[in-house]
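User: I'll paste a sequence; please echo it back and then give the predicted structure.

Assistant: Echoing your sequence first, then the prediction.
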Amino acid sequence: MTAPPPLLAVEDLSKHFPLKGGGRVHALNGVSLAQRRGETIGIVGESGCGKSTLARAVLRLIEPSGGRVRFAGEDLGALSRRALRARRRDMQIVFQDPYAALDPRVRIDATLAEPLIIHGLGGHGLGGRRQRRARVLELLAMVGLPGDAGQRYPHEFAGGQRQRIGIARALAASPQLLVLDEPVSALDVSIQSQILNLLVELRERLELSYLFISHDLAVIRYISDWVAVMYLGRIVELGPAETVYREAAHPYTLALISAIPQPDPERRRARIVLAGDVPSPERPPPGCPFHPRCPKAFERCRSEPPAERDLGSPARPHLVRCHLY
């Protein structure tokens, strides 16, 4: 019996942005990953590593420079604009800034009804309006907001409530995959936990798959089944969440994990402080892109890009790009 294709397959994806006067920003450089239905893959890394570019390229909100994205076995790059619009019903995004993501002039009920209208859900005429109204009320209840919230405007809500509305809008057309681009980073810590718990509940109830992007490893560990660590447009380590946190292999991953705050002072780990800054993506260094900051770099790292190696098993791969292995 043939195994079903992964829900999402990213194959050697690249994105280069041209600069005025010549040159290019290498935002993505050969990113590959596969996601099965019901899984959450966490994408983590410092600002500027290409996480948000990956999110937008996966959804074809921007066109990649190379590589391919398949959704349920279908090549998104080969779809016409009309076919892509229909497919986007199955793939939705929640943006980072809940204050900028909602139109301040539009009431919440119209915001939530818009995806239903775009995708032809609920029918036409009076009956269609009733169905859409019922769906809007269902969506508000789903994210923990009262029904009368639909009659209000975005400025009447706090940040956490606005993000709940953003999640409700993403769920309106009953997608299979949610791309969550730093969905809690703009919120207070106390509100972050509420939104994360809501996302976990919705994933289980609606059988969703998440591509969850964050710079916070503690958040990624809480919500993810798999973790992909990005540096300068590349995935340098990818594996099951607990394996990556317990047996991190790449020096960059080890440095990130060492920075996670420990509430128990007796279990405090030694902090690995990286030298220098992230190199410019306009002029990535030769060899391993991490070598200028790596405390374990040796001569080979400066000239030869490391190949991907699997430290795990066929059932639970643990991939790393590093000359140490």
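The first helix runs from residue 51 to 58. The radius of gyration is 21 Å.
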